[in-house]
Request: fold
Amino acid sequence: MKKTYIVIGLLISTIVLQSVAVAASISSRVRVLETQSYKQNKQMQQQSKNQQQLKKTVNEGLQEIKDLTLKVEKSIKNAKKENRIIKASTDYYFP
Reply:
């Protein structure tokens, strides 16, 4: 009878220890996954910041290009007006 109690006790303790080991394994896996997700979150935030800075730089460059385009167009219009004035003044000479 004692032998059966000992065997049953060992069997129950083995089952309990196995469930504790499984729980500990799950806990350590959860910690590893939390660490990985934290690292990925930090990396995504850094990439987002870099992307926003790049977008800002590109927008500033585009604005400079637009400003320069407007200046060129204005200078072309002014040059055309000056050519008209010069032509108008040279067309009419008195004898």
Notes: Residues 40 and 46 are 10 Å apart (CA to CA).
